[in-house]
Write a structure and sequence with these properties.
The protein contains two helices and 28 strands. It is mainly beta and 346 residues long. The chain folds into two domains: 154 residues, Methylamine Dehydrogenase, Chain H, CATH 2.130.10.10; 161 residues, YVTN repeat-like/Quinoprotein amine dehydrogenase (Methylamine Dehydrogenase, Chain H).
Length: 346
């Protein structure tokens, strides 16, 4: 082989290596996120959680006394579930047929048909149901009741509460591994509980070191890691098997929602100050690789793995009222008609 041929071959090998590296998930994961769209929903009142259904290309948004349903391919509303007193969360069954809404003020779960959006049942549960999940291994629905400090377990087939599980404090967001284990943040005691869905009991309670008021929670099921967002601009990373603290990542202020992208090993925190924090969960030290400016109040989120998109909700906010003894931390006034979905993509 001539020296010229060797140079050409080395060049081709180097070019192939560079192309391979650029195409690797590890590097493509660092491609920054951006706001790709805003969907104006309108209406009045506050909001809480949202839930993506990637297979059906739908997004469910709890919005005061209703749940808005949006087509994620067009950004257009397709309908709503109405007649609620104070919607908090939405869970979806694994058959693609039914949805479940935690109606906090009514102390109830509203069951709806996902094809027609018609209400098919109302099930009384504990006091102020907030987070809600559908557990596929046991075909049960779990509500985490803020005022009751417990969880109500509903048999999906009979639509009856079959157990009430005491919790050590006020529950917040919950996640599950799909195999019978559920995790939930306990806000006022700064810990995570692990629950056995088959036995319907708490099997562990782990303190979150350096984490105050944990709210949003995400799970890396394959890697066995939990991501809790906390006050003080922190994300606590916890071993899902042992409860040991793994790391603390830096995020924005006022977080409430969390998510995890299993394909790219990224953890997300949606923060009320108007920032989406993106944490590299594959890198040592869990560095924050992006702090994307969103909009003030965009504190809850859902991750759509099918589209690799993040959805946040917020509205235009007016001045914050003066604190009172009954409400020491009042939220700002909401400008009517300004309720909006923020769509985040690459």
């Amino acid at each position: 082989m001539t020296s010229k041929s060797r140079v050409v071959n080395l060049f081709l090998i180097a070019a192939a290596l560079i192309c391979g590296l650029l195409a690797s998930p590890a590097l493509s994961a660092q491609k920054p996120y951006r706001i790709v769209d805003r969907w104006k929903i309108g209406g009045e009142g506050g909001w809480d959680d949202l839930k993506a259904d990637p297979a059906a290309h739908r997004l469910y948004l709890t919005h005061g006394g209703r749940v808005e349903v949006v087509d994620t391919q067009t950004g257009k509303p397709v309908g709503a579930i109405t007649g609620l007193q104070g919607a908090h969360g939405v869970a979806l069954d694994d058959a693609g047929k039914l949805g479940y809404i935690s109606d906090g003020r009514a102390n109830a779960v509203v069951v709806f048909d996902r094809a027609t959006l018609a209400t098919v049942a109302t099930i009384p549960v504990g006091q102020n149901p907030d987070a809600i999940v559908f557990e596929p291994a046991t075909q049960t629905v779990w509500t985490f009741n803020g005022r009751g400090k417990d969880a109500s377990v509903i048999d999906a087939a009979t639509r009856k509460v079959v157990a009430t599980v005491p919790l050590p404090g006020k529950p917040e967001f919950a996640v599950l591994d799909g195999k019978g284990t559920i995790y939930d943040n306990i806000e006022d005691t700064n810990e995570i509980v692990r629950l056995d869905a088959r036995e319907k009991k708490v099997t562990a309670a782990w303190k979150l070191a350096g984490c105050e008021s944990p709210s949003g929670l995400a799970l890396d099921a394959a890697g066995g890691r939990l991501f809790s967002v906390c006050d003080g601009k922190k994300m606590a990373v916890t071993d899902a098997a042992t409860g040991k603290s793994i790391a603390t990542a830096a995020i924005g202020d006022g977080p409430d929602g969390a998510g995890f992208d299993a394909a790219h090993k990224l953890a997300f925190a949606s923060c009320g100050e108007g920032v989406l924090s993106v944490v590299d969960a594959a890198a040592p030290g869990y560095p924050t690789v992006e702090s994307l400016a969103t909009q003030r109040g965009a504190r809850t989120m859902t991750y759509d793995a099918g589209a690799d998109r993040i959805y946040l909700v917020t509205a235009e906010l007016g001045p914050r009222p003066e604190p009172t003894a009954e409400n020491p931390h009042p939220r700002p006034a909401i400008v009517p008609g300004s309720f909006t979905v923020i769509v985040i993509g690459r």
